[in-house]
Amino acid sequence: MWIGNSLLFNWLDRSLQPPGGAGQTKRPLGTIWLLHSGGFYYVEKTLLEGEPLPKRVHWFKWQAYTTWLSGMALLIVVYYLSDRAVLADPGVANLTHVQASLVGIGAILGGWALYEATQRVVAPRAPNIAVVIWLTGLVAIAIALTQLLSGRAAFLHVGAMLGTIMAGNVAMTIVPSQRELEKSVIEGRGAVSSAALSARAKRVSITNNYFTFPVIVLMVSNHFPSVYGHGLNWLMLLVLCVAGAAVRHVLNLRWTYPGWKTALAGVIAASVLALYVLLHIHFIPTSEIVSTSTAPATFAEARHVIDRRCAACHSAHPSDLTYGIAPAGIMFDTPEQIIARAERIRERAVVTRTMPPGNKTKITDEERALLGQWVEQGAQIREK
User: Fold this and answer.
1) Which of 367, 359, 238, 380 is nearest to 306 (CA)?
2) Confidence (pLDDT) at 324
3) Does the pTM exceed 0.90?
């Protein structure tokens, strides 16, 4: 609802028709007709100059607050207070759970503090420098998180940081501006008295608008281990953020730029190409372990590794219930089940190394290499 409101009001502001009729005593800032739900809606934007405040005015703020509160609650419950999701990954950095939690919390608060400082202190004097400082800080925080936390947690924490900034913009700038606007109308001072605050509220509202697509992408990134588990995941994270903001920018220009459809197609194509190239970079040091053994890997050897390192969770009767019974419905109880998932086993355990989560079962590089070798040989139950 929050993002829907942001997109709707951004569209509405850019689609309003200028007022007409020089003889009118009441001149709205703009009007528009809408068709929805089997009826016509007439919307008028005004500052209520010299007019009383309506008895009932609808505000749009709780969508932002409930989104942030529910998101932070999930982050705390899933990552900080339990092991339901891996926060510290020994394969990335040797941090304890407490240390990793402090890194995640520090990144969210630090990113928000940096943004507020640049917007309130630097931006009024040098807006371009403020943008450079903030973007540099964002890149630094994103890279640092991918080097300290598990890839999945790093992506989500960058998204949480951006979401916190967006919620902060609503609570600390947009809502106070609206309260001041309402107060000025009630006291008969007119909206001009709050023009400066309203102008900043509009700027941060636009900032939130540009953050919407990157935040959505980062929130759903946990479903794509080939991205967050890649050796160059920090670069892929930045590509996703830039792509989301660029798409939003082109959509914002579509009222004044005739070639916006071509530009949008170009941005999407360039983003997909960049991700494709990065995904196919063979990053051996951190992504794929290659076996040095010349002897063939047998199914018995592969199953022994799977029984020890994977079946603790992926079973109809798991010994580790942290993630529930058979996460994602994947079981390795029978040879047929193992064979059916052979390519997936190689992708998650050998290429991206995102399984086991945080290497919870202590699988070794040699065991990963053996699984990869067995799959490369054809993933047969009986060796020819």
Assistant:
1) 367
2) 80
3) no
